[in-house]
Amino acid sequence: MKIKKLKDTIFPADVYVVLFKDDKELAKRFNVHLEGKHDACVFDINGRIYMAVRPDVTLKVLVHEAVHVVNYIFNDCGQKLDSNNDEVQAYLTEYIFQQAYEYLNKELNVENKKSQE
Fold first, then answer.
1. CB-based contacts of 40, cutoff 8 Å, min separation 6
2. Do the Cβ atoms of 93 and 71 come closer than 8 Å?
3. Backbone angles phi, psi at 24, to 5 degrees
4. 113 phi and psi, to 5 degrees?
5. Phi/psi at 2 (nearest 5 deg)?
6. How far apart are CA 112 and CA 84, in angstroms?
7. Whole-model pTM?
8. How far apart are the two ends of the chain, measured CA to CA in Å?
9. Is 112 a residue whose pLDDT tops 80?
């Protein structure tokens, strides 16, 4: 299991990406109770937001989870979703996705190279 804190956003939020392979390991490490097999999930522990994903996560799931992260950030700081003015939501979703994608792309390419040696 690997954990990476994402760069700061414009909101006061600590966001982490967790790369995991085993639901039991994730549940034990974070004391979260998951039902069934999950490819990804988002949870908040003491104001820290975690986006947990498996190594084979797809882009569409990563975007999906980024939306959940944004909702946690908005809820934590009292920001209301506004469908008539959603630029902040869109930019923050893009930012979270990009940060997560860049980390995972780097991390997984390193792992793939090691496994091929």
1. 51, 52, 53, 54, 57, 61, 62, 64, 65
2. no
3. -65, -40
4. -65, -40
5. -125, 145
6. 43
7. 0.89
8. 21
9. no
CA 1 to chain centre: 14
Q: String of b and e for 95-112 (b: at least 16 CB within 10 Å)?
A: bbbebbbebbeeeeeeee
Q: Encode pLDDT of 79-97 as tens digits.
A: 888 889 999 999 999 999 9
CB contact at 8 A, 59 and 94: no
Helix (H) or strand (E) holding 105: helix 87-116
Give CA torsion, residues 30, 35, 104, 11, to 10 deg.
Answer: -60
Which 3-state string (H, E, C) describes 34-55? CCCCCCEEEEEECCEEEEEECC
